[in-house]
Each structure stands twice: as C-alpha cells, then as structure tokens.
C-alpha cells in the first residue's frame, strides 16, 4: 500500500470531490467580493462616458471576471486546501486514514491530482479567455470607456521612440498601413532630451512616411505658445512594421503568438528578457495551483485536540502567501534583467516545492 499513491478508489473520489467543491466555493466568494469592490471604484468612470449605461457595466463585469478568476484561482486552491484539511483533521478522518496504513503523501495524493487538473484548466482558460478579455479591457480603459473601434487587435497605452522623440497613444488598432491611433501625444526633444515641443491629437494615421495627427493642439516650450492645427505629420522614420513589432503586450497574447513576437524581437536585436520571463510564467503561473495542497498540508496533520490546529492553519496560509510574494518579486527582477528569465519564472515554484516536501517529510513521514 505504501507504494500506491491511490490505494482506494472510493477514498480518492471522496477527497477529490470534497476539494473541488471548496475550490469552487472559495473562488466564487473571492471573485464576487472583489468584483463588487471593483465596480464601486470603476462604475463612475464607466457611466461618465457618453451613452454608457447598465449594459456597459455588465460588459465591464464580463471582461473583468476572467482576470479575477485567473489571478485568484491559486489563492482559492490554497484556502480550499486549508479548509478541507482542517475539517478532515477535526473529524478525525486523517487519523482514520493513517490508521488504515496511508502515508501523508497518500492522503494528499487525491488533492494533488485535483490541483493538477485545476492547473491544466487554468492554463487553457488563460490562453482562450483571459488574454482576449485583457486586450479588450485595456483598450476600453485607455479610451475612457468610450465606444471602441470594431477592428481587432486593439492595443492600449503604446509607446514608440524615434531618436530623442517620443510618440505615445492611448489605443492603437489595425495592421500595416491601416494602423490607427487614438489619444496621441508627440514629444519632440533636443539634445539632452530637453523638450522642445509637444503635440496632442485625437487620432493619427499613417501618412507614408510619418504619422498624420488630426485635430492637433501644439505647445511650443520656447515661446510658451499653444496653437491649434488641422493636421501635423510627425515621426517620419517610424514605420508600421516597427510599430507592430514594438507594441507587444504579453498579458494580451497566448503562448504561441508571444513566442513568435520574442523571435521577431531577437532577430531585430532587441532585448527580450522581460518577454521571455513572462512567457515562462505563462506555464509556471497556472502550475502554482498544484503547489498549494503541498504547502497547506501541514494543516492536515497533528492532533486536533492538541490546540495547535489553528497554528498549523496559519503556518500553511503563511507558506502559501509567501510563495505568491516571492513569485511576483522574482518575476519583477526577471523583467528588469536581475534574474535570467527561466530562473525568474520557475525558481519560486521549485523552491517552495522543496520547502513543502521538506516540511511534510520532517513532520509526518
């Protein structure tokens, strides 16, 4: 029996069902509460846009909920692990399983198998739903929740440079010479990056070469004068191909499109550490759900009457949240080049895998 991680089909199904119900319950509670708080702070901005009403509020909810689900699913697995294991411990079910000859790993095996399934579902959900919802929501927010263009490929808060000069846009859509920008700002700078003039425009389109700004408000720093122009062509060296290459947002791309963007960046001699770190994290992030039962396992063992059950639950929660803190810190370091991309994405996972195994083996095995 010690070599079989699933010695009882009935027990495996019982623990898996118990675990799944609690994961769903915790995720529903977290998403509901956080969505309500989010709406309280955002509904005013949504309704402030002309023509927006209740329908746009529901649209925001449908776009925001996938992000909340993806972000807080691992937390839900952690909390579900602690609640399930504490309940089993209090009801002496863990003692009964160990008395039947099951090891600590065999008790946790159904939970780990369930968590692995949750990780696979999370990965697929991120690829199919979350990336699209994130792209749409970012572009909508950049447009101040106004009407969005019907074209696909909308990107928000893009930033381009041409020498010392800078071109920014709140949103961008289209491909090739049909690229359009909205909420455009052009900064012309001299030596030492000193600002010479600034031009703001409602929209911009490709002028072959350069980009034609429409309804321009131009500010001259030297004379402190503001003038209004119908149009102005800027950034003549900025091509559509370069824009398509530079306006890459890892949060809005799946694994395959992001990998292709990374290859294109490397071919052009661009730095790819940040993109590669986030590409690797698209695998390690969902897999964090698999780690939660192991980190929360300390709550399953020890005598419930010893008075240490609450302390064990606190330790389990601390281990789980410490993982998320270190994971975010490592990813940030990887984005700035402090860690190699692979190490930034995977080191926290393997570190806490070893920590969880060490705690489990030293205390129970």
UniProtKB/TrEMBL annotation:
Q: Where are the transmembrane segments?
A: 12-37, 68-86, 107-125, 283-302, 309-326, 338-361
Keywords per UniProt:
Cell membrane, Membrane, Transmembrane, Transmembrane helix
Q: Which domain of life is it from?
A: Bacteria
Q: How does it sit in the membrane?
A: Multi-pass membrane protein
The organism's lineage? Bacteria, Pseudomonadati, Pseudomonadota, Alphaproteobacteria, Sphingomonadales
Which residues are the signal sequence here? none
The compartments listed are: Cell membrane
InterPro entries hit by this protein? LptG (IPR030923), LptG/LptF_permease (IPR005495)
Q: Which NCBIfam families match?
A: LptG_lptG (TIGR04408)
What name does UniProt use for this protein?
Answer: LPS export ABC transporter permease LptG
Q: Which organism is it from?
A: Pelagerythrobacter marensis
Primary localisation category: membrane
For this protein, the record's PANTHER family field holds: LIPOPOLYSACCHARIDE EXPORT SYSTEM PERMEASE PROTEIN LPTG, SLR0882 PROTEIN-RELATED
Spell out the Pfam families in the cross-references: LptF_LptG
